[in-house]
Task: inverse folding
């Protein structure tokens, strides 16, 4: 009887960690290949209705990432643009329509927005999602193309309006024409965005923070429900969204095998995919929004990022809200805080 009890005790002790390790190994590929939410005609119609309400216009905006992946999205201009642009980043297994609510109040306030499908999401290409490792380079390419296309658009408008004229080869240039004079080094070309800001939720929040660390043209970031780092995020999944301590102890092998396999499959260092490290690397302004009842990425993630941030920082804990639901629970307060944060940090930047 005693031996039987010992065998049962050993089974109960070793089976959960072993099962967790197997589960982590099996789940690993799915973590890199999230379910793709297709950009259907109905979703596009839903977006167009929203843009029509604000008097905004959209145009297709396709960008080639540094590794050749085609990223698809939109540039959307408000009726009365203020010259600043906000990059919007959606969550995992979603697409650009996931941030349509945020785009609406930003457009009303005069901000132009860029809404892209992240790699391996929506209509964008890419074999896998890397949660910021490759996406931060994608963001740099998006900003490069945004600036280039806006400068070209401005030049075309000047020519169409006859404010500028195209000279034929060898035609004498008026010496007093301002557009023939070279601007001081480092001066943005006419038509460049006045300010570039970013707003993201969940996975998109983590990507926005890591992108801002990699590209100083992003002046400030609003991040709702970001993950502190991939390891910390998997603790919550391993803990069955009940307790991260369960994921750090009894089911810790789930985290070990999932991250090990993903690192081998994707070829990037898991430890470096870290919004927490990003805010410590560059001192940019951050508004962190954590949802009090979030079980997917609880507030401790935002608190860890807040503690590491070196730039101006704010943390808003949203009472009663679940994962990425802050805008749904407190829309007026959400709008007020985001717009005030962007206005303050745009003026600080220049």
Result:
């Amino acid at each position: 009887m005693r031996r039987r009890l010992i065998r049962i005790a050993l089974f109960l002790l070793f089976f959960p960690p072993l099962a967790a390790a197997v589960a982590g190994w099996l789940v690993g590929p799915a973590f890199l290949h999230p379910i793709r939410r297709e950009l259907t005609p109905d979703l596009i119609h839903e977006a167009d209705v929203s843009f029509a309400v604000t008097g905004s216009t959209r145009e297709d905006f396709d960008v080639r990432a540094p590794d050749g992946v085609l990223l698809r999205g939109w540039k959307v201009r408000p009726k009365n643009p203020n010259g600043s642009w906000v990059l919007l980043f959606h969550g995992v297994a979603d697409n650009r329509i996931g941030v349509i609510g945020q785009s609406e109040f930003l457009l009303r306030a005069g901000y132009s927005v860029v809404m892209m499908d992240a790699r391996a999401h929506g209509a964008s290409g890419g074999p896998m999602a890397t949660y910021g490792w490759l996406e931060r380079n994608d963001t740099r390419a998006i900003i490069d193309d945004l600036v280039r296309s806006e400068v070209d658009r401005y030049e075309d408008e000047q020519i169409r309006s006859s404010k500028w004229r195209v000279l034929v080869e060898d035609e004498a240039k008026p010496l007093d024409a301002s557009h023939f004079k070279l601007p001081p080094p480092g001066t943005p070309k006419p038509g460049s965005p006045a300010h570039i800001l970013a707003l993201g939720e969940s996975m998109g929040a983590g990507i926005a923070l890591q992108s801002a660390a990699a590209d100083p043209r992003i002046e400030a970031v609003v991040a709702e429900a970001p993950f502190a780092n991939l390891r910390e995020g998997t603790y919550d999944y391993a803990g069955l969204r009940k307790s991260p301590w369960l994921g750090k102890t009894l089911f810790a092998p789930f985290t070990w095998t999932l991250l090990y396999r993903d690192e081998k499959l994707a070829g990037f260092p898991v430890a470096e995919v870290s919004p927490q490290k990003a805010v410590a690397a560059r001192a940019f302004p951050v508004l962190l929004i954590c949802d009090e009842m979030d079980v997917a990425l609880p507030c401790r993630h935002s608190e860890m990022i807040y503690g590491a941030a070196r730039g101006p920082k704010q943390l808003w804990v949203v009472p009663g809200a679940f994962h990425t639901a802050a805008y749904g629970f407190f829309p007026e307060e959400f709008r007020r805080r985001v717009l005030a944060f962007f206005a303050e940090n745009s003026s600080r930047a220049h």
User: Anything to note?
Assistant: The first helix runs from residue 2 to 32. Residues 9-13 have pLDDT under 50 and may be disordered. The first strand starts at residue 57 and ends at 64.
